[in-house]
Amino acid sequence: MRSSNPVFSRRGFSRDNGHAGFTAAPAGGPAVGTNPYATNPYAPQQGTQLGGPQAPARADVMTIDDVVARTAMTLGTVVLTAVLSWVLLPVDDANLGTSYGIAIGAALIAFVFAMIQSFKRTPVPALIFAYAAFEGVFLGVISNAVSTYISPGVVIQAVLGTMAVFAGVLIAYKMRWIRVTRRFYGFVMAAAMGFLILMAVNALFALFGGGDGLGFRSGGLGILFGVIGIILGACFLALDFKQVEDGVAYGAPREESWLAAFGLTVTLVWIYTEMLRVLSILQGND
């Protein structure tokens, strides 16, 4: 498996001659003969599917409880450092520049840690926690600034909105209203790449031309692209859930739960920032 989010590539689908691929699974479980963890001695034998005979439970195999626990630890680190940065890095007029500088630096460091982890074949918990910590610093300062200068209640609304998206996608996935197929995966990845390219171009125009760049992050276009970003985040949540489901069904090594937690954390951070942006634009225009 590999981290699953709008920035990084993913693994966890079938493999063919060493290259990542995708084989659609039947409704009852993963496709037979496509176990990407076939070298794991504790993986279910070929032909084992969800709902059928399972291999004896072993401590070395990834479980849902592992994913939940590690996701809670990773998200908890994000929340803790966000709260600390909110308290310790004021965004009043006297300290606004310094706080913004620290936030931008933290975001860049978090991105570097995330990229290093994404290119590693195995998870490194220290890298994942470092990413979460620096990402929390960035989110804390930005959230504080939006709450101070736009609307005191917008952060709570963004958190509740993120939780609602997570719950909605989880229910839709469990009810099989969302089916992660090869076409779904390809569409989401292509849409995410196009979205990121547009945002990068907009950032470059804003950096060298000043103002809001091409206007993709403010006004009516900002709301539109923010909503698109939230929808993309929801789609990546479905891919995250598929990653976890396949990992458990195929008997992935227990350490892979760190990658699942990493992917879920990045996706939830993505959704929160887009939600915060949309709400801040809406309330800023009131």
Describe the structure.
- The protein is an all-alpha fold.
- It has seven helices and two strands; from the N terminus they run ββααααααα.
- It has helices at residues 64-88, 96-118, 125-149, 154-174, 182-209, 219-250, 256-284, and strands at 15-16, 19-20.
- It has a two-stranded antiparallel ribbon with strand order 1-2.
- A hairpin with a 2-residue loop joins β1 and β2.
- α1 crosses α7, α2 (96-118) packs antiparallel against α3 (125-149) and α4 (154-174) crosses α7 (256-284).
- The chain is globular, with a radius of gyration of 20 Å.
Summarize the structure.
With 286 residues, this protein is mainly α.
The total count of helices amounts to 7
Strand order across the largest sheet: 1-2
Q: How far apart are the first and last residues' alpha carbons, in Å? A: 45 Å
Overall average residue pLDDT: 80
Helix content: 55-70%
Proportion of residues in extended strands: under 5%
Radius of gyration: 20 Å
The total count of strands amounts to 2
Counting helices, strands and paired strands, the structural category is: mainly alpha
Outline, from the CA principal axes? globular
Question: Could you name the ranges where pLDDT drops below 50 across 5 or more consecutive residues?
Answer: 1-33, 40-56
What summary fits the major beta sheet?
2 strands, antiparallel
Taken in chain order, the helices and strands follow as EEHHHHHHH
